[in-house]
Amino acid sequence: MVNPIIVNIIEERIVNKGLNPKTGQTYILNDITNENYRSAIIRKLVEAYGWELDTDDV
Q: If we measure between CA atoms, which residue out of 37, 2, 50 comes closest to residue 29?
């Protein structure tokens, strides 16, 4: 189970090229190591923005 608030925060940081607080660098999809959150964020990006991801990104 994922927290939708966390999914929204991470999605916004990825879309707006915000910083990952752990690394201090731009947040990227590969920073998400939890598979449940990663899947939820990918679904949200695809649904909201029509993003298509390479198989290397998934």
A: 37
